Amino acid sequence: MRALILDNIEVFCGEILRKSGIEVKQENKLSRDGLKEVISNYEIVIVRSATKIDAEIIELGKKLRLIGRAGVGVDNIDIEAATNKSILVMNTPGGNTVSAAEHTCGMLLSVARLIPQAHAETAAGIWDRKKWMGVELEGKTLAILGFGKIGQEVARRMTSFGMRILVYDPMIPDEFAQTIGVNLSSLEKCFQEADFITLHTPLNSSTRGLVSKKTIEMMKTGVRIVNCARGGIVNEADLAEELTKGKVAAAAADVFEKEPLSQDSPLLKAPHFIMTPHIAASTIEAQSKVATQIALQIGDWISGKEVVGV
Ligand code: NAD
Ligand code: MLT
């Protein structure tokens, strides 16, 4: 079998696959046209989030049997097109949970105190202590929308800041939420009572535009919103408008509707907006874990063992 590894996935991935007898080619700078030319040579393709494995690529991948995602979100892969061709789609649940949760906590602290903005001004020689009046996290209500692996780790960490945590996730039973010490709640209550909202759902038809003009209307004036999940869960034009109006006091995002973020994005001009370039999982530990995990899972699949992450 031949595997094509893309998107700068750590070299451990290829090393482990080679030990399973797979011929590996790692291409970190392959253009879409380049991918279209070579995809027919491979049974396995492994990506992070930059490369889109859409219906066109799947159609051209005549030998493809498995699409591996070194990460969680599979929204860059056309699962329906893959399934129609009996191609397995496999991700690496849990591999980057801690890193994504820690980045989220950093964003929550940043929206409370506008740390990046204060840094930029201080670096520019402006010493204005009155301007950067923040808020404490202690005693505030944090709504976590999506209580899977990352949402739970965020809850554990933000509890230690003394926050009251509300959780909305239709798949989570009450008894489980109680073991983590959080309250399951309706989406409406989360929107109405939260001082801070953080998103941890996948992007799908039920979550696209979950934060939009209509739902921001239900929120408190001065709410702070963090999106380290997926672009598209927040309507960016609506968020920019509500930041400008001051209804939303501050917001942060690691992920965007279009990546790389377009220089025309209204978010670039919105006040109190903090952004990072989809790096919540970019730690030495997380990248090592997901690269190893996907390779081991593929090895198990080849040797007929039970497969996970499919
Ligand atoms: P997970 O599958 O463990 O958790 C997702 C949770 O969302 C599940 O519990 C599910 O029930 C819930 N959910 C689904 N639809 C919902 C809805 N409409 N409303 C409320 N909850 C809903 O996944 P995870 O590992 O916690 O990751 C969550 C998301 O974070 C991923 O899908 C991925 O898109 C994103 N992510 C981003 C980064 C990054 O680098 N920024 C890193 C890792 C993951
Ligand atoms: C994910 O879904 O795992 C994230 O997008 C992280 C990544 O792939 O870098």
Automatic annotation (TrEMBL):
What this protein is called in its record is D-3-phosphoglycerate dehydrogenase
Source organism of this protein record: Potamilus streckersoni
Similarity section: Belongs to the D-isomer specific 2-hydroxyacid dehydrogenase family.
